[in-house]
Amino acid sequence: MIMLNQSRIVAAAVDLIEREGADAVSMRRIATELGVGVMSLYNHVPSKAALLDAVAEAVLSQVEFTDDPSAYWTDRVRIQARAFRQIAHHYPRCTMVVVSRQRTSAAGLLPVERALATLRDAGFDGREAVGLLRMFIAYVVGSLLREVGVAPAIPPVPPDVTSAGVDPALFPVVGELAPYLEECDHEEEFEFGLELLVQAMAVRAGGTVVRGDARG
Amino acid sequence: MIMLNQSRIVAAAVDLIEREGADAVSMRRIATELGVGVMSLYNHVPSKAALLDAVAEAVLSQVEFTDDPSAYWTDRVRIQARAFRQIAHHYPRCTMVVVSRQRTSAAGLLPVERALATLRDAGFDGREAVGLLRMFIAYVVGSLLREVGVAPAIPPVPPDVTSAGVDPALFPVVGELAPYLEECDHEEEFEFGLELLVQAMAVRAGGTVVRGDARG
DNA sequence: GGGTGACACGTACGCTGTACGTGCGTCAAC
DNA sequence: GTTGACGCACGTACAGCGTACGTGTCACCC
Question: What's the pLDDT at A183?
């Protein structure tokens, strides 16, 4: 008797995904990992798809919010956005799984609540708050996708299209800006867009642009 | 003799994906679709992964740019963003494939060239232009992912978490804004974020905020 | 005519998800 | 104490997957 249960299975799946990538996930592999027969898993998980949904939910539920309602709303927005980026960094390969399955899970609802509360506090009406949240989620998801996309390949430095094989006649601007296109500090990039979005929201809020960056 | 070739295979794959979803794609299925043996495909395509890369490239290459360098840069940005959304609408289920494989393909280079040229024309320096482009891509990708995510399920109206099963005590704001969360006009939402981004870029450019929306 | 390549094809191997049946442990009812 | 029900780990089995490999049939060139 090995006391199988859903959370142990999900944990093994998360572990496996992080170690060997999402393609390596198979029911047999997970069972072996747990020292268990394949079909035993099905006593706790209805299907592989459901297992991956559970993985997504488990990862998403680990987003830590230390929301401080007394802080200025722009700082609260920044902190919430960074919370997502943090777990995406902690589970880079699972992030792909989370994003690719768009199940509206319960774990995703708390962040939504916090974000909407923040935006309401900032003075936005309901419709605007929802619209801004959707835009924010789109930006964060898109950023994390790019940042995490390098994971499956051998990380060191994929021979980018921009490195040398670009015809300057066809792509003059790309050629000129190649140095900038090759280097990419993901954190810096994320913060750049985040700041632009926050500023844009502040402008829309009608207030003055606030520079109270909350990072250490 | 049935005159197989790569583009016919890719076309069949695109067709199959749009009709039955990415999960339905298998080499055998595509071969059957083409009235051909399975292994014949491998005379024109090295592997399934390469085929999916080719699908992504084919879809991406259909993005139509009618870039008018004489137009004001904000309008050019809007048009380019909408061009992506348009093909995503035309190939909703392939969009997922395009996004999930982050191969830096040649087809993706022309849009980059156009976008960077536009941003340089707007007066941004090289570093800023690249940063803004990355932010823009993140937003567009994130938006399209949300918009396209509904495709695999039965489209009509998935019973959203927000509809009724939400405890107003735990999620007061979500409960209050449920009507806005349930409805989602994707085009309106996309334009909302797009406008906010363009405005933010205009502010950053130091110029005045320009409202020259170019849509008919 | 004989060699050479391109290409459609069949077979086969190891892998996948999972439906189904089986056996064993524990617990409730009689 | 016996019996039945039930939970759960497990083995077997099946259809389907990607693809390595060998084979046969052409068109073409020397």
Answer: 85
